[in-house]
Amino acid sequence: MILDLNDNINLPFTLEISFNKLIERYEELAKSDDEFIAAKARRILKTQEPYPILRDGFSKTSVLKKHEKEIQILLQDSFSEVLSLNEIKTASVPYHNFIFNASKRFKKIIKTAGPDFELVIKNMPEDDWYILSCTIIMAFYYKYEINFKRPLYYEIPDENGIIRIYKILYNADFMEVLPTENAPKLTQDDFDELLDNFENIELWKEKFPPQSYITKGFVISNIFDVTDDQSISNIKTTLIGSNKRKTEGFMVDFQKIFRSLLGIQDLEVGFSVFNKEENTLMKLHDSSVSSFLLRAKEEFKCENLFCHYSYDKILKNKTNFTISNVDKSFENAKNKSPQVKVLKDQGFKSAIFAPIAENGELLAVLELVSKIPRALNSINSNKLADVMPFLLSAIKRSKLDEENLIQAIIQRECTSIHPSVKWKFESAARQFIKEEYNGNENPAFKKISFDNVYPLFGQIDVKGSSEARNNATKKDLALQLKMVEKIIKTIFEKERLPIFEQLIFQIKTFEKDLKSNFKVDSEQKITQFFLYEIAPLFKYQFKTKPYLKEDIEDYFSKIDSSLNVIYYYRKNYDDTISLINKNMSSLLDRKQVEAQAMYPHFFERFKTDGVEHNMYIGEAITKEDSFNELYLYNLRLWQMQVMIEMETAFYNRQFKYPIALDVASMILVFNQPLSIRFRTDEKHFDVDGTYNARYEVVKKRVDKANIKGTDERITSKGKLTIVYSQQEDEFEYLKYVNFLQSKNKLGKDVEILELEDLQGVTGLKAIRVNILYQKQADKKEFYTYDDLMKTIKS
Predict the structure, then answer these.
(1) What pTM, to 2 d.p., does this model score?
(2) For residues 764 and 666, what is the distance between their CA atoms, to the nearest angstrom?
């Protein structure tokens, strides 16, 4: 209970209730030419005259009780009894929750809110209250107008527990501000200083010390229910804030706003997106957003989701479709309205489906559902008209975000425009647009190239992949030939026709070729034999020879429907290669993020029978004057460690693959900077210039090269091979090898080998060292060049 208005307040003034300004107004009215108005004014003045405290002012709340009757008479014009049931109005002191008079409607609103409800003004931080009070003093006393008005609100629950928003408009006609002896005399310089220091609360308190002024009077608050307007504004704010839309509580807050707008406590909100190409509704890719039409499905054909009437309303006419009583509609529809059944199955009793469309094109459907019959209906569905423009904007932005994400994924997965070089493509695109805008009929896209960059190349290749593929192919074909041979022999025993004898001979020839003479075109010949000779024959025999039915059914059940051949051993091979590539690529991609953080560089990778990658690092790519060869050395050391980790990861999960294969790792060192250029016809980067082409030749052939004077390949399973041509490269990489040996990542078997001459390339050498596969990763997974130097110095 408040005994004194100034208890526990922190404001630049003390508060006093005074009716002086109101009394002065009545003194003017007492002189009115209208005798009725003048007589009423004189009667009110006579009532308060014996009590000067009502004019002089007071802060003790007990005075209000003592002079309750006189105060009601003073305020009777301000609080008309005729309007008391409709107007929401209070009399209080400024920026204080103490109210000493109120209309009947306001009292009813507060009573409905419950005994535990505490009336508090929202939307104003504590320090702002103080500053706002200072601006009132500036306006009332110094006549210095400054606009610091902010909308003030009450949030009050109604009988259904729904929060309703009430806007407060102050009438301060009956207020006056007086300085005390503690109030500093302010100048224009003081006001100028305050204008540039809104956040400096200490400065405001210096210019307007606490309780250095007195406010006398009272304010009348005219209060308006703006729940609908505020709900619409909140919907707009929520949808515009992209960061907010990504938070976990977004949908909870969104539902609260719609509940306030429609006044339905249990209202739930869902969305589904329309896919025009497939004529389907799809779920939003957001775990917090549900679709009550789709339930747990990702998408649903619209013709299977709606009855004819609802389909036409939503998809063709783009108008709201409402079901005010689901149970009644379900009985009447006799199970012919899918949208009604799906609601009934989920326990909903009423619903609104509102199409979100632009220029006659459906984009999405807003789904509002409730477990209260008739709560949602065709009448209150009209309230959605005010929020549809904001929902449309949000859906369009969401679709644009999705399109951008799709483009980003396509760029990442399908093209070579790496983020490190994207800036140069954007610059060229801007120049292209500029030329086109300036009237150039044939603008040219600027050449994209980078000079003086250092290349790094590495690959992990599946050893003997061609042989493994051939073996899988031969096994599949041999199995299918055996099955065909068995069926043909069965027919030949029953019907001694020469054609069947010829087919058996052809099958035997194919089986012999598989064992001893398998050539490049052997697979194609045998496959065509199955497709054009055996398949038609078996389909005919299946219809005419009942005794073959079971064998032919078994044969076709083992045939892959898309390839028309047995695809068992080859599938195991293909699945193994695919899994190897997927696992190693994902590991390489994750580690690349860390490498880019060390120093930006160009990176691309390719999946073949294994994974290979290119990297280029240099000043031209970073666009900054920051490159140092230290970053090159660091990236080389990082590359070695990644290759080791990829091999380790492969061998640790090798037993999980359908077939057993081995891999071999190789790094190619090229110690001279070169130029690269984006080839628009092939959509990827390649070296630029005749001299640099030597690097590409080596890249394509070196992994198949033999050790000089032997038939042994330079790459070997269980070993990391580093190919180079310069002596300084050998010294550099032997340092890395020694360092990684000390960290138990490489073994002690180090070989220095010479390679056979390649076409146009001689003098290549290689370091080959065995990899130590570790079950558990080192606590420090990656070592930098600094770690290497510290180890050398120690």
Answers:
(1) 0.55
(2) 14
